[in-house]
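Bench log, entry 3. Co-assembly request; chain sequences pasted below exactly as received.
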Amino acid sequence: MPGRIVIAGASLGGLRAAEHLRAAGWKGRITVVGDEPHMPYNRPPLSKEALAGKTSFESLAFRPRAAAADVEWRLGTAVTRARPAGRLVELEGGERLPFDGLVVATGTRPRRLRCEGPVVGRYTVRTLSDAEELSAALTRPGVRVVVVGAGFIGCEVAATAIGLGVTEVTVVDPEPLPMLRPLGELLARALRERHEARGVRFALGQGVAAYSGEDRVTGVVLTGGAVLPADVVVEAVGTVSNTEWLEGNGLDLSDGVLCDSALRVGGLPYVVAVGDVARFPNARYDDVPRRVEHWSIPGDTARHAARTLVAALTGAAPVPAPFAPLPSFWSDQYEYRVQSFGAPVLGTADARVLDGDPAGDVLVGYHSGGRLVGVVALGGPSAAAAAARHRAELLRQPALTAQPGEET
Amino acid sequence: MKVVVDMNKCQDHGQCVFAAPEVFQLDEGAHLVFVGEPDDSLREQVEDAADVCPLQAIAIED
Ligand SMILES: Cc1cc2nc3c(=O)[nH]c(=O)nc-3n(C[C@H](O)[C@H](O)[C@H](O)COP(=O)(O)OP(=O)(O)OC[C@H]3O[C@@H](n4cnc5c(N)ncnc54)[C@H](O)[C@@H]3O)c2cc1C
Ligand code: SF4
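Structure output for the full assembly:
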C-alpha cells in the first residue's frame, strides 16, 4: 500500500523530514525536490566561519542518516505549483508528481529593499553562492562596507568583516539599538558596545532612502539625509517565505504557511510543514501561531510533522501531545557567543540579570507574568554553559496560558 | 557503535549533551568530553546528538 511522500525544499527542514519519516516507520517512496543545485548544507557558517574563510564551503554539507539512503533527490528543480486536494505537485518544466503526503519545507529568502539606485554591489547572505560572492567582495583591499539591518545576521556579517581586516564597517537600522526586538535593551546595549569597541560604527534610528552611484553602488543615502560611502552593501533586513507555489488553494499564506498544533496545513491530514516557513502555535507558550527562524526548529518540526503524517497515511497512532518545542538559538560575534533557550522575545519587557554583568560574561532571564520564559547568555563558553543550566527549569515551566498552580 | 567528534569543528555548543547525556558531557572548563564507543542501545540518542550539533561535528562510524 505505501505510496509516495513529496518533500518540497531540500535544506535542513527537508532533510530532517526525510530522516524522521523513516524513523516514524514510513516504508514508501520519499522524493525531495529542491531548487538549489546542492545537497542540503548548513547555513549558519555562511555569515560566520565560512564567510571568514576559516571553514571551506565544501565542508558545510550535512551527512544524511543511513536510514535515509534510499531517498530520491530532485535537485536544481523548483516546485512551481501544488494542488493539495488533487494530491499533485507540478515541477519546473511541467512534470507532475502525484503524492500521498506532502511536506512543505521551502523556507525563506532574504527580503530586498525597494530603493532607487544601482544593484551591483548589493549582497545578501542565504545561499552558498551568496556567501562565496560576499566573501570575495569583503576581501578586496580597502573595501568600505555598509550593513543594512542590525539583526543577528547583519551583526554577524559586520563582526566577520572586521575579522577579515575591513576597517570601515557601518551598520544601519531604523531601530535605536542592534538586535533590540529579539533580545531587549539590556543585551542590545551590551552588544552594541562590543561592536563599537572593535571599530564598527552604527547609524541607528534611520533607514535607507536610496543607493547612490552610476553602474555600481558607491554610497548609501540615509533617511536622515547623510550619505555613507560604500563599495559593498549587505542587506540583512529579514526574510520572505517561499510559498508562492502553494497559492490558489485557499491556504493561509499571510506569513509563511499556517499550521495547527500537529503541524498540519489547511486542515488536511496529509499535508504538513516544517522549518522556517511553518507558522505554528507552540503549546509551551500560547495559541498564537508564529514562525521561528532558529536552526533548532527544522529538526523539532520535522520529528513532530513526520509522526503526524505517517499516522495519517498508515493508521499508526497519532502523536498524542500538541507541538511544544523549547526553542534555542545561538549567534557568534567576535569571540562572544549569544546563546538562548526558550522564548526571550516573549519576556523582553521584564529582563533581569541572573548572573555576571553586561560588561563581561552575563546571563539574562526573561519573564512574562512573573514566569521565566527564556534565558540568554552573552560571553564565552562558560556563559553559554550557565544558560544551559537553566534549560531544565524552562522545560518544567507550565504553559503561559495555564492558570497558576495548574500542571501541564 | 563508534563515535567520532571533529574537534577542529566542535565549538562546545553542548547541544549534543542534551540529546545524549550518557555519551556527551561538558567538563569543568565547559569543553566537550565523550564516550568513543558507546553501547549500541544508545544509537538513537547519538543520532539525535549528531543531528542537533550546530557545527555538524559528530560522526557515527559503526
Ligand atoms: C546566514 C545565516 C546564518 C544563520 N545563523 C543562524 C544561527 O547562528 N543560529 C540559528 O539558530 N539560526 C541561524 N540561521 C537560521 C537557520 O539557518 C534556518 O533557520 C534554517 O536554515 C531553516 O531551514 P529550512 O530548511 O526551514 O529553510 P531553508 O534553509 O530556507 O531551506 C528551504 C529550501 O527550499 C528551497 N526552495 C524554496 N522554494 C522552493 C520551491 N518552490 N521548490 C523547490 N525548492 C524550493 C530553497 O532554495 C531552500 O534550499 C541562519 C541563517 C542564515 C541564512
Ligand atoms: S553539539 Fe557539536 S559543537 Fe556542541 S559540544 Fe557537541 S559536538 Fe561540540
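The CA atoms of residues 12 and 29 of chain B lie 10 Å apart. Chain B has two helices and four strands.
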